[in-house]
Amino acid sequence: MSMLTVSNLSRYFGGLAAVVDMSFTVEKGEIVGLIGPNGAGKTTVFNMLSGFIPPTSGEIIYQGRRMNGLKPHQICELGVTRTFQVVQPFPDMTVLENTMIGAYVRHPNTTDAKRKALETLERVDLDAKADKLGRDLTLLELKRLEIGKALASEPDLLLLDEAAAGLKDTEIEDILTLIRQLNREGMTLLIVEHLMKVIMNLSHRIIVLDFGKMIAEGTPQEISQHPAVLEAYLGKDE
Amino acid sequence: MKTVWTQKGFLIPAGALLIAILLPIFASEYALHIAVLVLLYAYLSTAWNVLGGYAGQHSLGHSLFLGIGAYTSTFLFTKIGLTPWVGMWIGALLAGLVGWFVGYLCFRYGLKGPYFALVTIAIAEAMVSLTNNINFIGGAMGLEVKWLGNSPLLMQFESKAGYYYIALVMLVIALWLVYWLSRQRFGYHLIAVRENEDAAEALGVDTLRVKIQASILSAFLTALGGTFFAQYFTYINPRNVFGEGPSIQILLFAIVGGLGTVWGPAVGALVLVPIAELARGWLGGSFAGAHLLLYGTVMVLVMLFMPKGIIGLYESIRQRLKRGSSAPEEERTPA
Q1: Looking at residues B183-210, what average pLDDT do you find?
Q2: What integer pLDDT is reported at residue A201 of this predicted model?
Q3: What domains are there in chain B, each with its CATH number?
Q4: Is residue A151's pLDDT more than 80?
Q5: Which chain B residue has its CA at the smallest distance from A75's CA?
Q6: In A, what residues contact B, Cβ < 8 A?
Q7: Percent of chain A having pLDDT more than 90?
Q8: Do A149 and B203 touch (CB under 8 A)?
């Protein structure tokens, strides 16, 4: 059985079809990339998977459990944690406290949560900034914190929304290394990314969305030569 | 192991507590009256701070809970002779129930910021009208706490010192509770909800439950203060307990002292209550309303120059001093 099974998932905003009849699976231990031009519906898919918006129709099954109708915090408790494309720190809390909120999911005791949070901060290279306030961080630090908060909740499936957007090449390299390492340790990841280099590099499998519809699915090689994908990104050859 | 009491941060509170314990020995009755008001408002503001400061849900109708506490214990005392010491807990439980109801009603439907504030005002105002028209609790005439002589068992005292110590104990317990909570998961969850609700929810925080729990706790504590309010002033009516007056005062102290901090509300009350009382004493007779003008001026100045309250100002000065003294050390460490 797949870890995550999405079947016939659709979401309409009024008359606008943001996601239409999407079906895919994520297997345990995989890194699956979700790509598509701007406005293709990637973030809408994430919002549905994480419980922030309910699907109009279709079903989301995680580890044999139906997730439709669950709230984000329940989905997080089940082991699926998301990050946000636009970073969402707690500005008036320190980096350590920010991360503790994630750690509290598995460690209700403050001492344990603090230990877990510090461990996590080392992984995302923010341990030196533990006492800084969320509001005082640079974009790179905020991007790392966004991942750190989610990691601290010890998810089995991590949903990363544009973790590398806006970063420099060397910084992106760091995040790639971290993601690969997490995956080697057994974490399953579904990632949305604009940067082709990142997604082609990391993903075992790629799903391509365009105007809310799944137009292709396959390995990075297959996707890079897929006619529908080339058309969606580069336009139709007249 | 270092206990909290040996930490430097506790020197000031411990010193303040010692002075507070000894105060009735040398204070006049009038000074003691002001001190009781300081303690009462510090307590009420601390209770408000749980929901308003920590969870960031600015209730402008906390008089609702003050009134429930005051009316419940006073009603039970005057009608069936139940001591306020018992009545206060019944009132608090009732207020907790109402706190749950109001919280559920508002937060379930995602009311935030000004919308939540408006609803709390409306409910408190509705209670004014309601109690005005219920005759068996005195209607607009209100209820009087009958004086039965010096009787600690009925929370009645000849001297102000008795009330003073009750208020002091209530405040110390409330401060300790908030301090303790602020270091628990619940406390961090409250702040996370205030700072970024979506992020909190994504990280497993049941934001609806956390906000409702904060509402219940805040209401419960406020109602206990309501009973004390009634016992101390010995008279309550719909307007003076359910009205907008106490609601606004309660939150002003927290705002001026520092929202979402353990000591903020108490410090705010300590600074503002004496100013208000003394100004009324000096100016109230000659220029009616002038004391409010003075009070308002102080408020505006605080808002302008200390947007994060007195505690916020204190923290930023401390940070600057700390940075100033540790800067050379930082330079020595290689980058």
Answers
A1: 97
A2: 87
A3: 22-321 (1.10.3470)
A4: yes
A5: B204
A6: 50, 52, 71-73, 76-77, 81-84, 88-93, 97, 100-102, 104-105, 108-110, 113, 134, 149-150, 152-153
A7: 77
A8: yes
